[in-house]
Amino acid sequence: MKKFIVAVLLLAMVGVLAFAAGSKEATGTVVLNKDKPLVFFNRQPSDPVSGAIDMASINWNDKTFYVGFDAAGGGAVQGKLITDYLATADASIDRNGDGTIGYVLCIGDVGHNDSKARTEGIRKALGTWTGSTDPGKVQVGSVVIGGKTYKVVELEGKAMTGTDGSTWNANAATDAMGGWATKFGTQIDLVVSNNDGMAMGSLQASNYPVGVPIFGYDANADAIEAIGAGRLTGTVSQNVDAQATGTLQVLRNLLDGLTGQDVYVKGITQPDAYGNKISAPMEYLAGTKALLAANSGVDKTNWQEYTSGSRDAGIKQSSAPVKKVLLTIYNAGDNFLSSSYLPALRYYAPLLGIDLTVVQGDGQNESSVLDKFTNLNNYDAYAINMVKTNSGRDYTDKLRY
């Protein structure tokens, strides 16, 4: 009898241990950092010279994705915005009447895919494209204005690098514009910039030629206001709310254990489990695991549609369990990220049950971000915006354990 009782007790203990082990598995064992969700955003891992996507970083694990916008499409939108404007302009836009439209170009970062795409879109639209996005590598183009064909010349294109080494620098654009206005005078008929920050910086030059049209890119709040005031001619919206919610939604889906197409469909093109769905159109490119927001041109005819204050009504407070995400920003001084992207992230993160910790760099040294990319075990997922687009491995190396 005693042996029977002992046997029963042993079996019961085994059952309890098995149940406990099963509970541990059901509630989740310790997840190593290398197996956690990772989203690169806004700066796609890529080679700064060839532009080739860094698939080693994108394929870091099966929970790694990129969220951004259609860079090539955005460049084309900016180019069309410019040529549409010129098509309806009058002969006075040729300020010195020489039959040539001269323009200067503010380049953000010669090694950045987005900057390359915008420069390409501008040059293709104006006919100055030779297959290179490098400064100075252009040809004479042409454009139709009021039914008449004008030659187009890129007087100078320059990468706007600050004294501290930071790229996309508005102060550098102010200095460059002042020099261009002095050097080229009435040969300047048009000013084009890879982003709004540099466009607004150009307008700060004390000798900016009055009445010369200027185009930016990003649809920042101050740029939209400048269009309304007649100071900026046009810009391109890369739909910051869609990008911000897309970044967070992909992380949310991965954190909830979704796999396959559900990762880039739920909450994006279809409602997720909490009833949320991004309103703006987004496209997924399977080959590069990239979720991209659409672009749209903004000018005096529609600028009021892009004034600040509106958010995506398709994203509401959810009952999702709170998860911690560590997010990096390459440069605390970047105009678009600091004034548009980060506020959108901070607005949507709590709605999607994401507790966001943000670290920001100086835009020059990767270490300014990497040194703050710490305490990784404390987080459930990561969102990375690199200083240099070829630095993906520097981050994944820190997530190896």
TrEMBL record:
Gene3D superfamilies: 3.40.50.2300. Keywords: Signal, Sugar transport, Transport. The keyword Magnesium does not apply. Residues 323-392 form the MglB-2 periplasmic binding protein domain. SUPFAM superfamilies: Periplasmic binding protein-like I (SSF53822). It is found in: Cell envelope. One of its GO terms (molecular function) is carbohydrate binding. Residues 35-257 form the Periplasmic binding protein domain. Belongs to the bacterial solute-binding protein 2 family. This is Monosaccharide ABC transporter substrate-binding protein, CUT2 family. It comes from Parasphaerochaeta coccoides (strain ATCC BAA-1237 / DSM 17374 / SPN1). The lineage of its organism: Bacteria, Pseudomonadati, Spirochaetota, Spirochaetia, Spirochaetales.
